[in-house]
Amino acid sequence: MARAMMRRLVFGLIAVTGVAVLAFLLEFVVPGDPARAIAPRAQSAAVLANIRAQLHLNQPLVVQFASYFGNLLHGDLGMSYVQRQPVAALIGPRLADTGALALAGVLAEVLIGGTLGVLAARHDRVRAAVGAVNLVLLAVPVFVLGLVLLLVFGYQLGLAPVAGGAGPAQIVLPALTLGLIGAPWYAQIVADQVQEALASNWVRTAVGKGLRDGYILRRHVLRNVLSPVLTMAGMDLGSYLSGVVTVEVVFVWPGIGLLAYNALQNLDRPVVMGTVIVGAVAVVAFNLLADLARMLADPRAREEA
Amino acid sequence: MPGDAGRPAALMARDVSVRYGPVRAVREASLTVGAGQAVALIGETGSGKSSLAFAVARLLPRSARVTGRVEIAGTDVLAADWRRFRGERARLLGCVAQDAMAALNPVLPVGRQVGELFAVHAGMGRRQAAAAASAALASVRIDHPEAVARLYPHQLSGGMRQRVMVAMALALRPPLVVADEPTTALDVSTQAEILGLVAELRERVGSGLLWITHDIGVVAELADWAAVMYAGRIVETGPVEAIFDAPAHPYTEGLLLTRRDLRSGAPGSPLFQIPGAPPARPDEAPGCPFMPRCPRATAVCAAREPPLLPLAGRGEAGHQAACHHPAPPGAPPAPAPARARTAAP
Ligand SMILES: Nc1ncnc2c1ncn2[C@@H]1O[C@H](COP(=O)(O)OP(=O)(O)O)[C@@H](O)[C@H]1O
Ligand SMILES: [Mg+2]
Fold first, then answer.
1. Is the dihedral of CA A288, A292, A293, A299 positive or negative?
2. B90 CB near a chain A CB, below 8 Å?
3. Is residue B137 domain-shared with residue B15, that is, in the same domain?
4. ipTM score of the complex?
5. CATH assignment at residue B162
6. A contacts of B105 (beta carbons < 8 Å)
7. pLDDT per residue over B120-158, tens digit each?
């Protein structure tokens, strides 16, 4: 098991490096001049040339590449072009807020999707309704759902703040958006697994032993559904930690996603690179954690590894 | 029929029918297991044995329609309130399934699965239930029961898994144990072990036993009474000696020819097979469902399905067969078109 984990760790490192290199090269393909973005009203070519020189943008690509990745090896993500602050200092506090949103979002999708899935598996009439809800949720774009929730619960009903920012009240709507977008996938998996379990011989054994339905569902059936759900939740957590751009922008949630969005618009390359690298690390790390969780939940997976 | 006179029969099934939609898997089957008695239910795959077994346990899926009357130790099973019966079932009967791997929860340690029985039915706490589970595992001759209790089903051998099933089935000392081909998936020596174990334990507990098998070879060692099932019906029933020494139904005669001696342990396929296969939908034709495979079939067999009737002029009480042309007692077995299987095709 430890060896399998080591192997995955190495693959993860390779994946993160690959993503970083690709992102770095892509930034030079994207048209646009960071110097102009920094000083949009500067008329003189000399001013712009001066800015470029300060940011070492006039050096060949190879030199810039070597210098960026050399610094990266020492844990230095560089300085923001626009905000004149270390990228790490910009990302740090936002990582906590994005983490909170990611966790709340995953919790919401597991709860909503899990409940829908169990209901669909147990009641034929609910299944059709859940299927329809799933279809609708799958078809709605994230930002539309976010805006609708904001309109209804924020403006119409006044139940949630609309001003943006991070806080316990502000987290509800973006988390609900993430939860509703992700719920159909969980509902599908949970419904399939619960249904399969309910028709299984081991549930028949449990019924034969005189156990109650609720007990069988909780202790026997859901225990079997746990491992695929944990795997999915871990992967979602990783990808949400890399910044849920749309949701953060719609709800002005000051996380990594909003930071990345603004940095992209300003051509603030070091910040874009920083968010990409942090995101890639998060995805890899949480995939690993998801594997570990699956092994804890399923004794058979422990031995396969 | 034999059994303790004082106690009610372990199982009394009258005219039990099971249908899955249009498929009639069991048709008016009647079966009695006296208190403490062992009865073998024999038949080819698809003859409806499992359907009958799970019908008496009221454990069939909702798609199955069950009619008839079933009593376990005097308790009316099919008429009982579903909720109340669900709580009582484990006290009335224990089930040993054919595939123990599928019948055990893959993600719970086996000790927990045994212990649940004591937690639910004896109101034991976690610790107590775990201790009782270990004792139950020890009673089926599992060494180091505490260590085994912590293992998951896939970590056990097939024989050990089946022992766990036996331990669960007998944990509450029920008056009836239903074993549905419990040794089919096991190798020959493990089969014999499980067989011996079940025979010994049920005698100690005093449970009645309904032992389902398609292997008539094991019947003589274990059972007092036998019932032969074909195409959803019981076609012959009686004391084991009567069935073995003087089979009346041509299907039973055929089964006896397929028998291989468990102790001589000849593995592999039987030396003889009854030619043909059971009908897919036995209730559609008016006649005897065995007729297409029967060496003694006549016109009457095509016209009417024979009822299960006591055999005239036989010494053995309770020996019954559903055949228009039952073999006379003492007749040599081996009906005419019996083909020896010499080589695989
Ligand atoms: N759940 C089910 N749904 C539909 N048909 C079934 C079901 N279970 C069994 N059957 C059918 O009922 C017949 C008897 O099956 P079964 O009771 O399993 O026989 P046996 O145990 O003797 O092999 C078979 O034709 C089988 O296909
Ligand atoms: Mg069967």
1. positive
2. yes
3. yes
4. 0.85
5. 3.40.50.300
6. 202, 205-206, 220, 223-224
7. 999 999 999 999 999 999 999 999 999 999 999 999 999
